[in-house]
Design a protein that fits this description.
Layout lengths: L1 E9 L2 E10 L2 E11 L2 H19 L27 H14 L7 H12 L4 H12 L5 H7 L7 H16 L6 E9 L23 E9 L4 E8 L12
Antiparallel strand pairs: 1-2, 2-3, 4-5, 5-6
C-alpha cells in the first residue's frame, strides 16, 4: 500500500514523498516536490494522490481535490512532438485513392515520410519513429524492398482508375521527358551504365529516368532504363 509522507526541513518548507513498506522498511517510491507555503503543499499532496491512483489503482479514502488544473514543469519531461495529424490525413487520402489495396504498410509509410521530409529509405525509417511515433524494423525493409518493383504497375493502375473516376482524366494531352541520374562510383552493372550525361558526368555510371505527366503536371507513369539507353528508345506506352 502506498502512502504520502511529509518531511519538514525548515520553517514553511515541507517535502512531499510517496512511499511503501517492504520488509518492515520504508521505501521511497517518488519524491513529489518541496512546498514553501500551504498552497504549494496542498498541490503537491494532490499530485501525490494522483500518482498513487495511477500507479496502483488505489483509491483515496476521502474525496481529495485533483491536480488536473495545474502542472509543475520540473515534474515533467519533454519527449518530443508527433505530427499525427499529417500522418492520419495522408493515410486517409491514400486509402480513399485505393493504395491500401497494395497491402504493404511499410512502403506506404515510406511514401508518407518522403512527402514530409525527403530522405534515404533507411533514414526515413528512423524519422518515422521520431516524427510519427511508428516503429519499423530495418530488417523488415530488407525483407520487403526487393518485391516492391513488382507493385509498380498495380500502383499506377490504382492512381489512374481514381483519376478517371473523380477527375474525368483522359489521355488527350500528355507530356513526356527523360533525365539522367549519376552515381558516385566508377563501377558499372546491368542498370548503371556510362552514357550521355545531362549532368556532365559521362565518366560515371548512370540511369535514365523517363516521366510522363498530365497537362496539369501530375505524374502518371515512369520507367527506368539503363544509363546507355538512347532517349529515342525510351518511349513507353501506358
Amino acid at each position: 500500500m502506498y502512502k504520502i509522507r511529509q518531511i519538514k526541513y525548515a520553517t514553511n518548507s515541507v517535502s512531499i514523498q510517496v512511499y511503501k513498506i517492504e520488509n518492515r522498511q520504508r521505501v521511497i517510491v517518488r519524491h513529489i516536490g518541496t512546498a514553501r507555503n500551504d498552497q504549494e503543499k496542498a498541490e503537491l499532496i494532490s499530485l501525490a494522490i494522483d500518482f498513487i491512483e495511477k500507479l496502483s489503482s488505489q483509491l483515496a479514502l476521502f474525496d481529495e481535490s485533483q491536480s488536473d488544473n495545474f502542472m509543475y514543469l520540473n515534474q515533467t519531461e519533454f519527449i518530443g512532438v508527433y505530427y499525427t495529424f499529417f500522418y492520419e490525413l495522408i493515410s486517409k487520402i491514400a486509402i480513399t485513392i485505393g493504395f491500401d489495396k497494395i497491402k504493404n504498410p511499410l512502403l506506404l509509410d515510406l511514401v508518407i515520410m518522403r512527402m514530409f521530409e525527403p530522405a534515404s529509405k533507411l533514414r526515413s525509417i528512423v524519422l518515422r519513429q521520431e516524427y510519427f511515433g511508428i516503429r519499423h524494423r530495418r530488417q523488415n525493409y530488407y525483407a520487403h524492398a526487393p518485391g516492391w518493383l513488382a507493385l509498380k504497375s498495380k500502383a499506377e493502375s490504382i492512381a489512374l482508375t481514381f483519376a478517371r473516376k473523380h477527375y474525368s482524366f483522359n489521355f488527350d494531352l500528355l507530356f513526356y521527358d527523360v533525365t539522367t541520374l549519376y552515381f558516385e562510383t566508377f563501377e558499372e552493372d546491368e542498370l548503371r551504365k556510362n552514357g550521355f550525361s545531362k549532368d556532365n558526368k559521362s565518366q560515371q555510371p548512370q540511369i535514365l529516368v523517363a516521366l510522363m505527366v498530365t497537362k496539369e503536371g501530375l505524374p502518371i507513369a515512369y520507367e527506368v532504363f539503363a544509363g546507355n539507353t538512347f532517349e529515342g528508345h525510351a518511349i513507353f506506352l501506358l
